Amino acid sequence: MNELLGKKALVTGGSRGIGAATAIALAERGADVAITYNASADAAAKVVKEIESLGRRSVALAVDAADAIAVGDGVRRAANSLGGLDILVNNAGIGAIAPIGELTLDDVDRVLAVNVRGVYAATQAAVPLLADGGRLIHLGSCVSGRVTTPGMTLYGMSKSAVTGLSKALARELGPRRITSNVVRPGPINTDMNPADGPFAAVQIANLAIDRFGNSTEIAAAVAYLAGPDAAYITGTELTIDGGHTA
Ligand code: NDP
After folding, report:
1. To 5 degrees, how large is the angle CA 39–CA 65–CA 6?
2. pTM over cut 0.90
3. Distance (Å) from CA 48 to ligand 1 centroid
């Protein structure tokens, strides 16, 4: 599994959950990987150590995705540290599950700042640095598509925005052979959405495969989209949701 040998990747929100699994999956396939995190410095350091134990270079940068200036700076620091940039995984995100009447406009600002503005800022900074043939992979969600659930107004809205960004990027960057795709997970067992959490049973009831997914099952799909076999896939969405939308 060396298909990403020599590639340089940045995974935002790589300290825990899907982002950590993705950073490790990219490194297992040969990439050097920078990660950002918000608060979990110890967890981020562990991911860096694991990547280094695979013989790859890694660095963890404290970058709040809601701070667009810090995000742009973080992308440039990651590329400087690794010596270039081939892959950006826009993974950092926050949830907000509640009926619309219980969400405030402050909630709206916070979720859009991280899930939309932060993604935009990271991508805007990465595009001029990305090598031709590079990859943009954005974490969306199965609830922003054809089938959703109550409580997902704000979160679903934020993830739908990522699809709009990704599709237009595919068109803009096609001439440089840079692809842009969205991975849309269903319920994945992480701190954000624990398999034993209060909303677990209702999520499982909506699935064809009656269990939560694992972070590694999403990471493998991201790694595939980052690899040479996916060079002709762009502007699309890969849904990995245990049949939530079946
Ligand atoms: P977790 O909450 O488990 O991990 C989130 C990661 O993002 C952490 O590394 C965290 O850093 C980082 N992060 C959060 N806020 C910020 C911020 N403001 N600035 C920088 N980094 C930040 O989430 P998941 O792994 O479950 O989710 C990863 C992505 O997948 C998200 O975009 C999420 O919306 C999406 N997703 C998840 C699903 C699920 O069921 N789990 C389903 C569908 C989509 P730190 O450790 O420092 O807090």
Report:
1. 90
2. yes
3. 17
Report whether residue 38 contacts ligand 1, using a CB cutoff of 6 Å: yes
pLDDT single digits (tens) 152-187 = 999 999 999 999 999 999 999 999 999 999 999 999
> Could you say which of 37, 120, 155, 224 is catalytic?
155
CB 149 within 8 A of CB 101: no
76 SS3 class: helix
Q: What is the pLDDT of residues 130-154, one digit of tens each?
A: 999 999 999 999 999 888 889 999 9
- Domains for the chain: give ranges and CATH numbers: 8-238 (3.40.50.720)
155 tagged catalytic:
yes
